[in-house]
Amino acid sequence: MNFKTFYINNHRIKYREALLNDPIFEKFYLIENPHQDDIVAIPDGCVDIQFTWENNECRGYVCGSFLQGKKSNISTYQRCFGMKLHPGIQFKFLQKKITELLGCRVPLSKFLEISSFEHRLGKLACFSEMIELSNHFFREQEVAPVNMIASSAVKLIVGTPGSLRVSDMIQSLGYSQQYINSIFKYYFGVSMKKYSDIIRAQTAITYLDATNIMDVIIDLGYYDQAHFIRDFKQYTSLTPKSFVDQVCRTKAGMVV
Which domain holds residue 155? Predict the structure, then answer.
């Protein structure tokens, strides 16, 4: 699933990404924003590692998912190079619980000796060279073992997508609701219900590009149009109609 993380509504902002077939990273991306125009963050339930250029110096951060669509802190930087981890993937150097990263940007230097890497990355201008350098550095970091229960729950949520009731998932997994919820929240920072809502909104973004609003409501199991509009706006900051007009039809904005 190609998770959408930003709504960009200004053609002065340049965005590039490289989708990967990789067990750790889903994608790398580069945002060039010389005029520091607003960028909206969209919840995706993932952890990103981002490097921003501040006064010509490169600084790294670990960034947790937002829980609602809102202006991103990267709007204040002229350049941001990021890498998105697959859901549930954690490096062992991340000592903080994911719950403590939600909606936050924590300096990467709190977890790693990163100054030499920041210095080398900061001198690069080519996206492919940034990817190559980052791949080499982070392949040397140890990845924490994947929790099979949390991983199985995510596969159910993404596979449905996001519309399967939590009670049905619990029954399918064969453990108590309290046990599964506690494990899931430890690895993802949010409840299974909240994560399902995020995935459903992410899926709606993709569906709206090819399907009318009423079909999306039916396909993804929203109660009614009001429920869909409320949820979609919460996670993207746009109504479905505004999204279709600005992103799908006129291409005035883009979701990436």
Answer: 148-255
In a domain? residue 1: no
Same domain? 123 vs 176: no
For residues 156 and 176, membership in a common domain is answered with: yes
pTM of the model as a whole: 0.91
Do 102 and 122 belong to one domain?
Answer: yes
Q: What pLDDT, in 10s, does the model give residues 98-149?
A: 778 888 899 999 999 999 999 999 999 999 999 999 999 999 999 988 889 9
Same domain, 152 and 85: no
Q: 113 forms bridges with which residues in the sheet? A: none
